[in-house]
Give the backbone structure.
Amino acid sequence: MTRALILEDEPLLAEQLRDKLQQLWPDLEIVGMALEGREALRLARETQPDIAFMDIRLPGMSGLEVAAALPGHTKVVFVTAHDEFAVEAFRAAAVDYLLKPVSGERLAATIKRLRRDEAQNREELLALLQRIGVGAAPSHLQWIRAGIGDATVLVSVDEVIYFRADAKYTSVMTREREHLVRRAISQLESQLDPDKFWRIHRSLIVRVDQIASARRDLRGRYVLTLRDRPEKLRSSRAYGHLFKPA
């Protein structure tokens, strides 16, 4: 029986990938699911998987470092949210890649390649990834698990317009709706790309490219008009320097 390991720091994405693999490849044995690199290597040493389905950018140890340390016989299939240029760059060297969110059709094609036992040059793969800089730096937050009623949904950070802290929750505002998460806004700030998201108030973080204009009021605060939401946001004076003309 072919054995596989899943390395994915978003548990819901890992479970979805596992479920799809079990449906499309019933005789594949999932020997472990790891949330970070060191745990994945421990599981790999214990189970000696034939295949590792793994993300590239991870907290702590990167997917590149994990791939370099896996047992030599283990084939690597990357599951990535990278732009197409990076995906195309390592397509030839990896057994395959899966672009998030993973479709059943794309996963079936990957399984077909794996069942043909296509060869993989691990040294070529790692050298190529190093040249394009993949895995060299920790990733910023890409997905947020949020609640809608009794359900849990994944919200892409690219869809978020702003975050607002409210008591025990943080509101995650997209173009269409509000989601609630049980995470402190300070924790979210530490994981967001500072070039894309600005803290403008102790309770507000806004995506920079959503700021249509910023007008200063008499108290030195700035009132922000957004591109894709009707409400206006007010910054505190402590963050006024973000909007002063250069």
